[in-house]
Amino acid sequence: MSKYSIGEYLEKALALLGWGIYPLGETAQGADVGSALEHNTPERTDQLYRNARVLQHYLNPARLRYYESLVHLLPLETYHQRHIADAGCGPGYFLLQLRRTVESAGFRPASLTGFDYSLAALEIARQILPEADFSQLDITTPLERRFDILFCMDVLEHLLYPARALHNLLQMLAPGGALVLAVPNGRYDYFAGHVNFWSPESWRVFLETAGPGYAVTTGLVGNGRLAGERHVNVALLKAIVGVG
C-alpha cells in the first residue's frame, strides 16, 4: 500500500504540469486565519491546539514523514547521549518521532526538552511524551540553558523579530553544539499567517548576517508531501572554532 494519498498523487501530477492546488480561504490545519499578527499570538495558538479538528489536520501522514526527514539531517549516532531540545515544539510530536527513530537504531538521547509559548500545546506534549521536560518559552527572550542539539522548525517565519530569536537560540548551544533550523521555502509559501518569506538565497543571507561566528550549511528538503520535495529551507549552524 502506498504511503501517499490519492490527493497527493493528483497534487504531484498537477505540479508536473506547472499547476497547483490552493485553498480558497486562509486556514491553519483547517482553522481560519485572520492577519499574521493575530494568528501568531499565544491566545490564538492555544485556541488552535484545543480544537480537535485542528489536531486531526496537524497529525497527518505528511507531517510525520517531514519530521522523520528532519531527524535524519544528522547521523542517528549523533543523538546518542546528547541533550536535545526543540524550541517551538508545539504538541511534542517531533520529539516523539526523534526518540522513536533514534532508539530504534540502538541509540538513546541523554535528555529531551521542548519549549513552546502555547500552554495548550505543552499540555498535549506532556501527555504523549511524559519522559521529556516541557516548559513555556518565548524564544525572543533569552534562556540560560544549554543543549548539544537544538531544533527550531517552522517558527522563525511567524516572528516579527527573527534575528533576535536566532541570537537567543545560538546562545542556547553548548560548546560544540549544533542548531538545526527549518522554515518554508518562500518561493512556494503563500500562507497569510507567516510574517517572513525566505527564498533559499535570502535564507542563507539572513543566517550569515544574524549569526556571525557560526558556520552555516543550508539546503532544501521536502515537506512530507509528494509534490513538496523542495518546499522547506533547512540550515545547520555550528560555532566556528576560535571565533567569538
Architecture overview:
The protein has 244 residues and is α/β, with parallel strands linked by helices. It has a single domain (58-239), classed as 3-Layer(aba) Sandwich (Rossmann fold), CATH 3.40.50.150. 34% of the residues lie in helices and 22% in strands. It has helices spanning 6-16, 36-39, 42-49, 52-58, 61-71, 93-104, 119-128, 162-171, 200-210; strands at 27-28, 31-32, 83-87, 111-116, 133-136, 147-153, 173-184, 214-221, 232-239. Helix 3 packs across helix 7 and helix 5 (61-71) packs across helix 6. The chain is globular and about 40 Å long. The N and C termini lie far apart (52 Å).
Mean pLDDT: 86
* Strand portion: 15-25%
SSE order in H/E notation?
HEEHHHHEHEHEEHEHEE
What's the overall geometry?
A: globular
Radius of gyration: 18 Å
The name of the CATH superfamily reads Vaccinia Virus protein VP39
Write down the CATH class. Alpha Beta
Straight-line distance between termini: 52 Å
